[in-house]
Amino acid sequence: MIKHFTKDEILESDSFFRRNLINCLSGYKSLNLIGTKSPEGISNLAPFSQVFHIGASPPLVGILFRPHTVKRDTLENILETGYFTMNQVSPSFYKEAHWTSARWEGSEFLHTGLEELYLDDFSAPYVKGSPLQLGCQLVETQTLKVNQTVFVIGSIEHIYVEEKGLRTDGSLDLNVLESVTVSGLDEYHVAKKLARLSYAKPDREVEEI
Amino acid sequence: MIKHFTKDEILESDSFFRRNLINCLSGYKSLNLIGTKSPEGISNLAPFSQVFHIGASPPLVGILFRPHTVKRDTLENILETGYFTMNQVSPSFYKEAHWTSARWEGSEFLHTGLEELYLDDFSAPYVKGSPLQLGCQLVETQTLKVNQTVFVIGSIEHIYVEEKGLRTDGSLDLNVLESVTVSGLDEYHVAKKLARLSYAKPDREVEEI
Q: A205 in a domain, yes or no?
């Protein structure tokens, strides 16, 4: 059976129901902890599920932030200092990763049990034990007219990855890295590969590679 | 063992290696087939992995398109007609979904075995059998200065979802819907839930709900 919602029915639904539903529609999302440091030297860590590939040459990453209408430590630290880290989450610390989203006073590292790590004189903190860590520098921001969502683009300055997950062709085995994926607002998953598929061409069916 | 790449090492690496690596860094991505129709009436279907939640009230979705420097049927059809559908992919047709990315002459529906479906006088085609289908209308586009990536925002006008995946709180059980997630350029996965977690507060550890 198929359930159909029109836009009017969505808008008239309970706000909690609507928020859950709409947040699930985009499907599985990546999960990264973004580490920053304020100009005053206070470290910050927060979970983000809206991270995107922008380009490979130069290597760029994009992050969507909710409208900047209330205090948002991560966004403000990035805008003020220009640096941030992205740290993928594994099952051994996904609950601590979720917990960083609480309204803590002071650094999330002091409260949640996650440990900060500083590498290569990079000013923003990495998360110790994360299987895939990126050190990034702010390049550009844009604000969407429709609802003031903020889109931040960063250049990838450093990549640290557990070697067991790096294949010889450059691709990463996220199953081996045990990257966690998130759906909606609060649901966490691991993934299991179906297949890698050959480059798609009209003259032959795709094959597993 | 941790492998470290600096930006210079990334830029100097083989272009195939670099493309694979950088495309994997954002983690697991959602997979949607976007259905459109040209002003001349030719339907089009293409896979997209860069789809985002923009807002719940009104319900909005965002899609990133590669720079508009070559012919891009999906983007052009959206800009010219204002309408598109998004269709989540399940394991029963992920190979056909991948195959839609080949350079077909004419409609991908004619070649790949996927069937088009028209609902509620909506002009863009849905994919028959998809467990979660959205009918969307163009709201806004922005082009990123850094590399001319195009960001398209659509309003969600219709949602069709298999009832077995819709929970009473509005959230979707993507494991039950068997939504497929993609990593890098060519690797497909299903997911398995770890847990849903309670709203994070500083005064107590998060719990499974």
A: no
